């Protein structure tokens, strides 16, 4: 049976690859016009014309204050950098600002001094409270919403859209909890992204996640043009950054805090690259080991030599996790010959890329001339740590889950037969 | 009391009753299995996959007929001109192009190339006036190619049956001395925009809205130019010109794509506001276009008076620019240089070219969407496929087939069919029922089912086994005395 199945799948695979080759060659041969007219954006140039953001805080309750602050901090940043509210989908339990335990009603702060009220005056939460569900999140991404859903709750992207997806909450290996009620797995997000790609719903995606074992959440992606980063390795917790004694809980997570701090250096016309952002990650400060995944992404990340040495230096036990490290030198060479432009932070956070003043304006080549290393503000006092996760799940080698499943099945059989034999 | 009672004297331990109790449990379980199966399985109707893949192959052979008739004046000068032009055109496009010499009669859908009296190339409806002396095969072919099928342009918006056009008058800061109180937008739209929208009504359905705002600050400081009292916008600043955080540009009442047109009045203290080129020198242009988004015109008005109403005449140049931007955004092909536009803005040639472009685009998008739908359903085993989805896929396929089989459709009919096919395929792909159920690894299933069922099933299994064993023993016991 097993042999039969294996050979069948091999045959199917061969057939599929054959037909694919056939399709491609047929395509090459006779129809240059269609290829040209409808070529998908392959990231060779910045072909996006609009920016979108999906920001998800998947926790609720007062003690998860910091997750709401994370999402609101990102919201503030993407808005400041030019993504309009109509293009931001904010999913938030939103029970912190008006919580009866909140000593500062209608405010959410992300720093102990309470300098900046993130709740401000112009917040548009699109999915609130119990609307923050796995189903709604997947529906927003894939566009499979009921006709009655209003425009503000829809991700109306097309194949020229760059999307920034930010998630925060409690999670574990390959899952993220939604409001203590359900979970989304890495497979679900990967499948949703594939459906978006097939449906022509994005040009490029930048996926960022701050949760425990965050890097496992992007491990299942398989669709093109996705750049991903996470806060912590498999089997590792992500930590909160600081407490505010008056608010009484942790106010922000460490990884998000340092990302936001870096983003404060970015303005709308900034030429800072994604590589610059990634190289700014400091393990001693963040407390966990952030990861990057760029093997699905076409363009180089920029950041120069510092990026090529990503994951070395202070705080890194071993070479940091960067899936796609090997492809990077090739991408960098292509960038030098002008084929591909390095990914800028503003490609995912900013507004449009180019305008047309009668005659075509060429792309201004990026020169990372701005500040590369953020100066460290304040005293480097070690941040207070709060555990943020469910019990950790030790990494299992591939194939073990099914062995375990069969073992449990056998066990039941053994128990039943033991009873039988005893009779 | 004399110890525990003999079980066989308890009424529910009578053999028959005990066995029927155990049996009734099992009957309930066995009867419930189909119900459980029914409620936990996903409805996955089979989609016509092979047809979809075959159609995806077939659409590459999809050709739209184009008939061009050269006037006898041309063929008189050069007998083989028609054939040569056809050869050149065939090389460059996927259309079924036939060029012929004049046969004295003109068919309904064909395009005429007539000799021009003057040196200029002129377009009038479906007629092209071309100077006889210039008419070599390559020049004629090049001119015709631009009329027949436009090139791909990244500025053109994706096709949608409906668009909303939003016209906004933005005073940067009306407290700064001068305020444009009102503008005669309805007249401007009637004069400059409606001719286009009505000419393109076969392609799109337009909804138009307009507004005026009195405070629309920029998110950056324009450069102060040193040489004269002027301010400039660098190309980089143009990309972040639209301050969408603070400007409310369109109502969100529908899901149709919006094309924005902004008339921006800089505050009195920042005039004139000029657009700079890459070298930092001011250009003569006062407008720019954001691909697939809309167009912006900067109006540097004279300083006085302090309150202005913009009349139709004042708005003439702005709305002319808007109309040009609208044409660009919708993908109406530009007439190549040297061609003089006729009185009617988009000529028959241009509209036909756009119809062809959109029809081919729709056919390609439809078959792509269908293929994606089918391959996703194959790829994701948990994805439900309901009856509506299947019907939509079938109908879209039918529409595509009718396109490739019928040769006597008008161009408008072809577009309408391709649009229906696209809408249906999109409806199938984005059907709310097509949401894959959550991914559950095998461990999760065990984790869910074991605590629920194992505790109940094991005693039942064991009880059944004991009963069977007892029954067999009993039978043997009965049989032994007999033997």
Automatic annotation (TrEMBL), chain A:
GO cellular component: GPI-anchor transamidase complex
Signal peptide range in chain numbering: 1-26
Keywords of the record: GPI-anchor biosynthesis, Membrane, Signal, Transmembrane, Transmembrane helix
PANTHER family (alphabetical): GPI-ANCHOR TRANSAMIDASE
Pathway: Glycolipid biosynthesis; glycosylphosphatidylinositol-anchor biosynthesis
Name of the coding gene: GPI8
Ranges for region Disordered: 366-397
Pfam families (UniProt xref): Peptidase_C13
Active site (catalytic residues): 170, 212 (nucleophile)
Gene Ontology BP terms: attachment of GPI anchor to protein; GPI anchor biosynthetic process; proteolysis
Entry similarity comment: Belongs to the peptidase C13 family.
Transmembrane segments: 403-421
A single MF term (Gene Ontology): GPI-anchor transamidase activity
Superkingdom of the organism of origin: Eukaryota
Protein name as annotated: Glycosylphosphatidylinositol anchor biosynthesis
UniProtKB/TrEMBL annotation, chain B:
Topological type in the membrane: Multi-pass membrane protein
Record keyword Glycoprotein present: yes
TM ranges: 21-37, 446-465
GO biological process: attachment of GPI anchor to protein; GPI anchor biosynthetic process
Lineage: superkingdom: Eukaryota
Entry GO CC: GPI-anchor transamidase complex
A UniProt-annotated Pfam family: PIG-S
Localization terms from the record: Endoplasmic reticulum membrane
Keyword presence, Lyase: no
Protein name: GPI transamidase component PIG-S
Species of provenance: Marasmius oreades (fairy-ring Marasmius)
